[in-house]
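Human: Respectfully, please carefully check these tokens:
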Amino acid sequence: MRPGPAIAAAVLALAPKALASPEDVFGFGPRSMALGGTGAAIGEGYEAVYANPALLSTERARSLTLGFVGATFDLHAGKRISYEALRGSIIAATVPVPFGGVLKDRITIGLGFFTPFGLVVRGRILYPETPQFLIADRTQSVAIQAGVGVDVGHHIRIGGGFAALAALSGSVLVATDASGRIGTVVEDTLVASYGPIFGASYDIGDAYRVGVTFRGKLEGRFNVVITVKDLGEIVIPPLNISGVAQYDPWQIAAEVARVKGPWKVAVGATYKHWSAYPGPAEATVRCPSPDEVPEAPEHCAALVPADPGYHDTVVPRIGAERSIVLGRGVAGRVRAGYFFEPSPAPEQTTAANRFDDARSVFSLGYAALLGDPVPRVELALFGQLHLLHPREHHKDADVPPDNPGAPSVESSGLIVAGGLTVGARF
């Protein structure tokens, strides 16, 4: 077996896989999804695990929720770029901690899981000149959150938790065996990566509330080092097959909401630190460090990927909910929301074709709640329409020569998402 095929086989065996949070694209839970992704001040139940863990403390009952979420992508950049539809399940729960005394009805634990059907995770890093939308693959991954909320009194609530994902670390050794044949030894380890979530809220009287949530950075990173040795006169430096397949920047959400009465309304904004995004690809061949090679020069000829040039964004959000009494023990909630997600990506003028457009997202939802004298059950539905604003990318034909897409490419698209959940409180 020649070294080229051996290396290729090893790389294919360790295709990059990583987790990230699709809730950064759609939100988490049908209520938050229907309310334009708001929740830092208006969140309820298990949805507060992501929206604001402090608000878990408002939940006084144990609950279990099961549901389904789906989305389709119609994305264009000169031509339609095909992406597989998203289909997945939601499993969530809240558990009040049964303390007594001063801690009675003050602490609640929440859990939330989203799992796509047919796969555990998906991470793809394509050649930069290949037309692609980063938003589509970011939704194809498991999302896991857990948190605890505490009512500390004096109208103040605090909470904390984490979002979890996986990272891949591994190695591939390509060498000759005792018989003189070239073979490979592959070792890989799936390790956990965490991002913290912290939140706080303050009730202004009994009708209004302000809330703030911090969510730490989440990276779906993989790093596989290929080492080739004992190939006679053939010398190949260590090859690093590495990069960031999924990425959520750290962010701060601030919100004010009316939380009492038949009308509940929330207005807020989310700051996202996209300027720290390193880009999907990392250097394959790297300069040796002084610890590895003391006489190594400070700089070497190894190429490094270009800075993607992302910038920070602010996402404004608004959501409203109207409660309606339908009969004895039966109530309905009509929900609607909107948010505008600016694109952090620069215009694609060179060889790269990693497209990202600003989005206007319109959301609707409805929930039916059953109470006494029947068991307390909630059926909730939501729908979202993501309109990707058309964006013109003027491609310089001379940088590089034969720039793909020159003289210009327009990116645009449409995303439709929806789902339903059934939950019980007991």
